[in-house]
Design a protein that fits this description.
- There is one protein chain.
- The two termini are 42 Å apart.
- The protein has one domain.
- A four-stranded mixed sheet has the order 1-2-4-3.
- The chain has 14 helices and four strands.
- Helix 3 crosses helix 11.
- It is mainly alpha-helical.
Length: 418
C-alpha cells in the first residue's frame, strides 16, 4: 500500500512538472511573436513573468516531493518517537501543528523570493520586509490557534464515532463554510484597512446593480491593498447580511467608473447564478473523497511506515496527500468554473447596458495589462490549472472584436480573479 501511495504521488509530481515545462516552452515561443492585447514591451514582460513563476513552481513542486518522501519515510515516525506528551489531546495537536509549522518554515524562502525578488522585479510588490514579517506572524498565529481547534475537533470525532471520517468531513466542511463567511471581517481586522466608498455617485450606481440582482450587502468598501501589491482586484465576501463588496484601491485608480461597474456586474453574475454555492459544493465533494479515502486506509500501511495507527498520523497523511486529490479534482472544477465565468461575463455585459460588453472588455484589457497576465497558455496547462477561460476566449464569447477594445490601455494602464 505504501508503494502504491508513493507511486500515485510521484505520478502527480511528474504530470505537474510536465504541464509546467509545456507551459514554459509554449510561452517562450509565443512571447516572441506578434503581441496580443498588450503592447510589444508589455507582452514580452508578461511572458517573462509567467515563465519565471512557472520555473519557481517547478522548484516548489520538487521540494514538496522531497518533503513528502521525508515525511512518509521517517518524518512521521520521528514525530511519534520524540513527542513525549502524556495528554492524548495535546499530543495530537502538537504532532499535527508541528507538521504544519515545519512545512510552513520550509516554504518561507519561496514566499520571500516570490514577493521580494520576483514580484518586486516586475513591479508588483509594494510591501516592506517589516510588513511582510508582520503579516507572516499574524498568519502563523492564526494558523496555530484555529488549526489547533480543528485538530482537537477531529481528534474528538475520531475517538468517539465509528464512522469518524464522515463526521470529520461534515465538521471540516462546516469550518470551510464559516471561513468564507468570516473572511472579509478577519482580513479587515488583521491585514487590510477597509473604508466606506466615498464616491457617492459610484456608490449609488453600484447599489442599482445590486438591487437588479437581489444582492444585499452591508456596504461597499475600499481596501488599501496598494500598500502591499500593485495588482487589481475586487471581491464579494460573507453570507447573508454580512456580505461586503470590497474594491482594491488599485482597481479604483486604474478603471473608469463604467469599467468598474462592468467588473462588479460580472461578480454579481456569479451571485445571481449561485456560483459560490456550486463552488462550495465542489469543495465539499473533494473533502468527502479525501476523508472517505483516508478514513479507510488499511492497517498494513501504518505497519509499512513503522508508525502507530494514531489520529494525528491519519490527519498528517490526509494533509500530505491533499495536493494530489486537489490536482485530480482541478480539471473538473476548472470546467465548471470556466463555464460559470462565461455566464457571469454575459450578465456583467447585460447589466452594463448597450456598451456593457465593450466596457467589460476594456476592463479585462486593463486587468491583463496591470496584472501582467500573459494572454496565451498551452491547452494542457489550461485543462489542469485554469479556473478562468483565457481572456481572448472571453472576449470572443462577449462578441467583442479586439479592434473595439480601448487601445489606451496599451499605454500602460495575470488577470484578476474576475
Amino acid at each position: 500500500m505504501l508503494m502504491t501511495i508513493m507511486a500515485i504521488y510521484t505520478l502527480y509530481v511528474l504530470i505537474s512538472i510536465y504541464t509546467s515545462v509545456m507551459q514554459i516552452g509554449y510561452i517562450n515561443q509565443a512571447k516572441r511573436k506578434s503581441a496580443i492585447l498588450l503592447s510589444a514591451a508589455e507582452f514580452l514582460k508578461a511572458g517573462n513573468y509567467a515563465v519565471a513563476k512557472e520555473k519557481m513552481n517547478i522548484l516548489s513542486t520538487f521540494v514538496d516531493y522531497l518533503l513528502f518522501i521525508a515525511w512518509i519515510g521517517f518524518g512521521i515516525k520521528a514525530l511519534q518517537e520524540n513527542l513525549m506528551i502524556d495528554n492524548e489531546v495535546l499530543l495530537n495537536i502538537a504532532a499535527v501543528m508541528g507538521f504544519v509549522i515545519i512545512n510552513s518554515l520550509i516554504s518561507l524562502p519561496f514566499n520571500y523570493y516570490e514577493k521580494f525578488v520576483l514580484d518586486k522585479s516586475f513591479g508588483f510588490n509594494k510591501s516592506s520586509v517589516g510588513l511582510w514579517i508582520k503579516d507572516t506572524l499574524i498568519s502563523f498565529v492564526m494558523t496555530l490557534l484555529f488549526g489547533s481547534l480543528v485538530v482537537w475537533g477531529i481528534y474528538e470525532i475520531i475517538t468517539h464515532f465509528t464512522l469518524w471520517w464522515l463526521w470529520s468531513f461534515l465538521f471540516v466542511f462546516a469550518v470551510v463554510v464559516m471561513i468564507n463567511m468570516l473572511y472579509p471581517a478577519f482580513r479587515a481586522m488583521f491585514f487590510d484597512k477597509l473604508t466606506p466608498l466615498q464616491d457617492e455617485e459610484l456608490d449609488a450606481q453600484i447599489q442599482v446593480l445590486m438591487d437588479k440582482t437581489g444582492f444585499v450587502s452591508s456596504g461597499v468598501f475600499v481596501s488599501d491593498a496598494s500598500k502591499r501589491d500593485a495588482r487589481l482586484n475586487a471581491y464579494f465576501g460573507g453570507f447573508g447580511k454580512a456580505k461586503r463588496v470590497v474594491l482594491f484601491d488599485t482597481l479604483l485608480e486604474k478603471l473608469t467608473p463604467k469599467e468598474l461597474l462592468a467588473v462588479l456586474g460580472h461578480e454579481l453574475g456569479h451571485f445571481a447564478h449561485g456560483d459560490i454555492y456550486k463552488n462550495i459544493a465542489l469543495v465539499g465533494a473533494m473533502l468527502f473523497a479525501m476523508f472517505a479515502l483516508f478514513g479507510n486506509l488499511p492497517e498494513s500501511l501504518y505497519m509499512e511506515m513503522g508508525v502507530a495507527h494514531e489520529p494525528y498520523v491519519m490527519m498528517i497523511l490526509l494533509m500530505l496527500f491533499m495536493p494530489v486529490l486537489g490536482f485530480i479534482m482541478m480539471p473538473i472544477m476548472g470546467i465548471v468554473s470556466r463555464h460559470n465565468e462565461y455566464a457571469a461575463d454575459r450578465m456583467g455585459s447585460e447589466l452594463g447596458g448597450a456598451a456593457g460588453a465593450i466596457e467589460l472588455a476594456n476592463a479585462l484589457q486593463k486587468l491583463v495589462t496591470e496584472n501582467k497576465s500573459f494572454p496565451l497558455s498551452h491547452p494542457i496547462y489550461i485543462f489542469f490549472h485554469y479556473t478562468h477561460p483565457p481572456v481572448i476566449e472571453r472576449l470572443k464569447e462577449l462578441g467583442v472584436d479586439l479592434v473595439d477594445v480601448d487601445k489606451s490601455a496599451l499605454a500602460g494602464k495575470c488577470e484578476a480573479d474576475i
